[in-house]
Amino acid sequence: MIYELKKERFGSIKDIVHKQWDNIEIMAVLSGINTGWVFVDSLETPATALLWSKGIEGFYFIGNPDNHTFNAEIIEFIINHLRFRIIQSGLNHFEFSGDCIMWDSVLEKIFNFKELIKSRQCVYQLDFDKWKYHKTNGLCKDTDIRKIDLNLIQSAEILNPEFVESEILRWWDSLDYFFEQAFGFCVIENKEIVSYCITNFVYQNTYTIGIETLEHHRRRGFSQMATESFVSKLLEDGCEPYWDCMFTNTASRSLAEKLGFYLDHTYSLYRLPL
Questions:
Q1: Strands 206-213 and 240-246, sheet pairing
Q2: Which CATH number describes the domain made up of 3-112?
Q3: Contact 128, 231 (CB under 8 A)
Q4: What is 125-264's CATH number?
Q5: For residue 121, how many C-alpha atoms fall within 13 Å in the half-sphere facing its CB?
Q6: Maximal C-alpha separation, the chain
Q7: What's the whole-model pTM score?
Q8: Which of 54, 109, 227, 258 shows its CA 20 to 30 Å from the CA of 84?
């Protein structure tokens, strides 16, 4: 049997998460900071779990990958119990990864379907010496960098506050909760938010990075400006940035390396149509 774990008990399974990687997104959900669901093989002594992250809109397999009972039951559980909830969330696919590299061969055996799509994700960590000496991107004429707050989002002078607001609400339950737990910066040009860098997940003193720039304003250095302000604020507060992006996202990877981040590891990401 596979059981759903109540939110107040999420923290009880932190110890089964593998330590090979930081797994910030997983730990943020288990700490109750970010929203998710958790399903375990046992309510008393869980060894393996499946975790859903609202912001990621995907799942993580965590704990013991050699749990044959759990592995044998998971497809039926997804079809009969999770499929409707996933579709209700507006998705038509089951996206997942493991909390360590040992999960890869197990997951590929469990989900041995021709429709299974495999890709790679990259996790970057900051090299503090390279960060100190990287070349910063100065402001252009008619541009400004602002810390994102409620006054900014509610300002009648800003032409597109929904650009930032909708992204915040993808990852966080409310604006108030975001401002309580996290922060972000944006670049404004002629009263339009053209780029932002916000926190997607928080665990202890580590903050993940989420960046977006309006398509018609890309390749102008705005992403770098917003991210530099974000990382500078983190370091001032004694915190650390965490960068996770798709292997195929060359723009994100190039920016990370330009700012002094180095590739720490890659991991497999899988997608299966429902």
A1: parallel
A2: 3.40.630
A3: no
A4: 3.40.630.30
A5: 19
A6: 62
A7: 0.94
A8: 109
